[in-house]
Every structure is written in C-alpha cells, then in structure tokens.
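Hi R.,

Here's the chain you asked about this morning:
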Amino acid sequence: MTKAVKNKILYQLNFLKSIGYDYHNNIDLGNNDIIDSSLPNNIAELKNIVQNCYLCDLCKTRKNVLFGQGNSEASIMFILDEPSTSEDDIGEFFVGKSGEILKNMVQNVLNLDINDIFITNIVKCRGHESFTTAHANSCNPYLSKQIEIINPMLIVTFGEKAYKYLSNDNSNFEQVRGKVLPYKYYNILPTFSPSFLLRNPSLKKQAYYDMLKIKSIMEIN
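And here is the predicted structure, written out as tokens:
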C-alpha cells in the first residue's frame, strides 16, 4: 500500500468517525512515538494534516484549526490548553483580551516579537465545552511532533491544565509554577494562563516574575 493510498483511507475513516460512525473501542498504543513516526518532519506538511483532521468531535464545533504560529526554529515554545473563542473565530493567536495579555508578556517583558517564539495548544480546535482528555489524546501526536520539529530550549506551559496534561505531573500547581523542570529531552516552565490572570489580576505580579525568569534563561543561553 502506497503512502498516498494509506492517507486517503485514513482520511475517509476519520471523516466517517466525525459524522458518527463507530468502529471499535479506542486502542491505547502506549507509545506515542509509534504514531509520531508516521507524521512528517516538516512543519508545513504537518500543519496541512492537522488542518484537515477529523479524529475527534471538536471538528464539528470548530470554526478554525489553531495549529500553531511563529518561528519553527524558535528557542522558546508556548503551550496553552485550547483556543479561545476569539482565536477560533479569527483563526489566529494573540487575539482577544487573553491574547493581548500574552502579547504584552512577549513584547514588553521578554522583549521579543511574537514571531520569535512558537505558540500552540494542547488541542487545536475549540469546542462548546472545555476539552476532555480524549480530545487531548487525539491531538497529542501532533503536539509531540511539533515539539520534536521545533526542538525548543524551553517550553512554557500556560495554566494548570496544560502543564498537567503535558507533563503527567499531578503536583500542586502552586508548588511547580515558575520552576524550571525536566520534561523528556527539554526543560519546561509552568506559569498562569492569560485567561486565569484576567479572572485573578492580583496574580499578574507573579506571572511577571515568571517572565523575568524566562528572559534570564534565554539571555544566559
């Protein structure tokens, strides 16, 4: 079976799944590297696959697929939990009130352009409700391949949900926030999500110090 034929069959199966067909219970392969190995090592080709993904029911609710944005050779990678409503509407990152907070962090604290970093989400599509672990698992091979391609010096996760899903660490978030921690072959630093800071503006000072730590790490390296 050629790769083109295989991709066509997978596309049809995913489409049928998206409109309600069930085949059998999901199989846990145990090792995402097995799945990742079938994905391209080119960010543009990977983006094309993700934009045509129908692996979970979020494809029914999304307006746009938020694959990722920025420099594919960035030293720093931002990972949030899911697209905001504004991002889903427009199809871009750094929009809406939470997007403005994030943009200010990058430009005014890190002194970087938003295109100097790479930003993405645990899940690539917006649903009517918060994403589930099943949704995240469907997107996980894509995220793992993004991390592999970009190979960042530092991964910054925004929010408890993003950190805990990515790291599989159930520690108290306050105990790990702002700390540089090992994650596979990378370093990871969890901090507050922009949407959380909108609801809890008193914590912006702590988030500011997290950004200063990130800046110092980037300057040293």
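One quick note: The first helix runs from residue 3 to 18.

Cheers,
M.
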